[in-house]
UniProtKB/TrEMBL annotation:
<dbReference type="GO" id="GO:0005975">
    <property type="term" value="P:carbohydrate metabolic process"/>
</dbReference>
<dbReference type="InterPro" id="IPR016055">
    <property type="entry name" value="A-D-PHexomutase_a/b/a-I/II/III"/>
</dbReference>
<dbReference type="Pfam" id="PF02878">
    <property type="entry name" value="PGM_PMM_I"/>
</dbReference>
<feature type="domain" description="Alpha-D-phosphohexomutase alpha/beta/alpha">
    <location>
        <begin position="162"/>
        <end position="259"/>
    </location>
</feature>
<dbReference type="InterPro" id="IPR006352">
    <property type="entry name" value="GlmM_bact"/>
</dbReference>
<dbReference type="InterPro" id="IPR036900">
    <property type="entry name" value="A-D-PHexomutase_C_sf"/>
</dbReference>
<dbReference type="InterPro" id="IPR005843">
    <property type="entry name" value="A-D-PHexomutase_C"/>
</dbReference>
<keyword id="KW-0413">Isomerase</keyword>
<dbReference type="GO" id="GO:0008966">
    <property type="term" value="F:phosphoglucosamine mutase activity"/>
</dbReference>
<dbReference type="Pfam" id="PF00408">
    <property type="entry name" value="PGM_PMM_IV"/>
</dbReference>
<dbReference type="InterPro" id="IPR005841">
    <property type="entry name" value="Alpha-D-phosphohexomutase_SF"/>
</dbReference>
<feature type="modified residue" description="Phosphoserine">
    <location>
        <position position="107"/>
    </location>
</feature>
<dbReference type="Pfam" id="PF02880">
    <property type="entry name" value="PGM_PMM_III"/>
</dbReference>
<protein>
    <recommendedName>
        <fullName>Phosphoglucosamine mutase</fullName>
        <ecNumber>5.4.2.10</ecNumber>
    </recommendedName>
</protein>
<dbReference type="GO" id="GO:0009252">
    <property type="term" value="P:peptidoglycan biosynthetic process"/>
</dbReference>
<feature type="binding site">
    <location>
        <position position="246"/>
    </location>
    <ligand>
        <name>Mg(2+)</name>
    </ligand>
</feature>
<feature type="binding site">
    <location>
        <position position="248"/>
    </location>
    <ligand>
        <name>Mg(2+)</name>
    </ligand>
</feature>
Length: 450
């Protein structure tokens, strides 16, 4: 059974268009309240409690109010955290023993988009089965509990301070960041008043950029999806390192003092190699998009490697199935289950920094024996619901490209789970071949989708 509203990262879309409308979000809150609290234990108030956080988009105020109304009508108490990173809500939900956490965010998307994602009481993203149950509840009429059973809303005080201390606790006690000058780019997003404090309190000299949200500038020219600002900032300030987060701070991209950008595949390699120096690592999980070089490197290190569907929720599922602790995506979603239950840009940055400190090496040195295969990724916007696999011409062209590449590369065409996009990726040892073949496929896709 397919999901009607939930994508790879919750419910997401353009604000004002279905499903991101006030009436739908209120019904979503009601349906989620009825579904998520069926087996929940009562709180001191006698009602289940959920925590709601958001990023810095202007639409967050409207959607927060709609969610709050829906949960209240379902008899669920609400705690409001205000602008907070997505992984902070996951942590606080678990730490406060709440029944669920909700984040209002469209992550790396522009401000016109927004979305709703849920966390379980364990601080993990909901499995597909629970999301399907919520969707089934959405098809039922919305009701309202009696007035004496309505949920209440309260503000969670010092949510930021609690989360800052948690992040710092994931960094080794015997290490600090003294002597490092770090540029921290918060994408004008949810971590704008969180991330700089974490690195500063651990001893680093911090230059903050992307920390002036106005409701409209989230991810605009800053952050993990626009790392040029980070690279230029590091060079301009003669910093040692740069750290870029996305709008909800669950992604991480870094750069070294020369301004050279390191993606999620490289950062995962640094983290796993560091853990190997401490003790054995059974395996790591990537996705269908993970660079082949990482798979080869882990094999040479005697570390198992598995690929999941694209999306950190699916990476986590494979990690849990295999009992492995580390995984991630090239986009910067990184998971360290020995530190957190979900992907966390700040926590991941601290794991990379601790690896550099322990090894007394630079990022370039830590990645010196990992040479990524050239990849070309082209995104093409299509009509919602377009299925590229139904195009015989495109399927045939893909097979032709794969035959030409042989064992020197690979091809991946997939629909985005968060936007009406088809992503075409070609990986080859020769970068010119990768680019030329990706453009061939993208041009064919554009013709077929017209």
């Amino acid at each position: 059974m397919g999901r009607k509203y939930f994508g790879t990262d919750g419910v997401r879309g353009l604000v004002g268009e279905a499903p991101i409308t006030p009436d739908f979000v209120m019904r979503l809150g009601y349906a989620a309240g009825k579904t998520l609290v069926k087996t929940a234990t009562s709180t001191a108030s006698g009602r289940p409690t959920v925590l709601i956080g958001k990023d810095t988009r202007i639409s967050g105020y409207m959607l927060e109010a709609a969610l709050e109304a829906g949960f209240s009508a379902a008899g669920v108490d609400v705690m409001l955290a205000g602008p907070m990173p997505t992984p902070a809500i996951a942590y606080l939900t678990r730490a406060l023993r709440l029944q669920a956490g909700v984040v209002i965010s469209a992550s790396h998307n522009p401000f016109q988009d927004n979305g709703i994602k849920f966390f379980s009481e364990h601080g993990t993203k909901l499995p597909d089965a629970v999301e399907l149950e919520i969707e089934a509840a959405l098809d039922q009429p919305m009701g309202c509990v009696p007035s004496d059973k309505l949920g209440r809303a309260t503000r969670l005080r010092d949510a930021g301070g609690r989360y800052i201390e948690f992040c710092k606790s994931t960094f080794p006690n015997e290490l600090d960041l003294r002597g490092l000058k770090i540029v921290v780019d918060c994408a004008h997003g949810a971590a704008y008043d969180i991330a700089p404090h974490v690195f500063h309190e651990l001893g680093a000299e911090v230059i903050s950029i992307g920390v002036k949200p106005d409701g409209f500038n989230i991810n605009a020219g800053f952050g993990a999806t626009s790392p040029k600002a980070l690279s230029e900032g590091v060079v301009e300030h003669k910093a040692d390192l740069g750290i870029a987060l996305d709008g909800d701070a669950d992604r991480l991209i870094m750069c070294d003092g020369s301004g050279r950008i390191y993606n999620g595949d490289e950062l995962l390699y640094v983290m796993v190699k560091d853990r190997m120096a401490v003790g054995p690592v059974k395996g790591a999980v990537g996705t269908l998009m993970t660079n082949m070089a990482l798979e080869v490197a882990f094999k040479e290190m005697g570390i198992g490697f598995a690929r999941a569907k694209v999306g950190d929720r699916y990476v986590l599922e494979v990690m849990q199935e295999r009992g492995w602790l580390y995984g991630g995506e090239g986009s910067g979603h990184l998971l360290c289950l020995d530190k957190h239950t979900t992907g966390d840009g700040i926590v991941s940055a601290l794991q990379v920094l601790s690896a550099l400190k322990r090894s007394n090496q630079s990022l370039a040195q830590c990645c010196g024996d990992l040479t990524l295969f050239p990849q070309t990724l082209i995104n093409k916007r299509v009509t919602a619901g377009f299925d590229w696999q139904k195009s015989e011409a495109l399927v045939a062209e893909k097979a032709k490209v794969e035959q030409e590449l042989g064992d020197t590369g690979r091809v991946l065409i997939r629909a985005s789970g968060t936007e009406p996009l088809i992503r075409v990726m070609v990986e080859a040892k020769d970068p010119k071949h990768a680019e030329a073949m990706a453009r061939r496929l993208a041009d064919m896709l554009e013709q077929q989708a017209a």
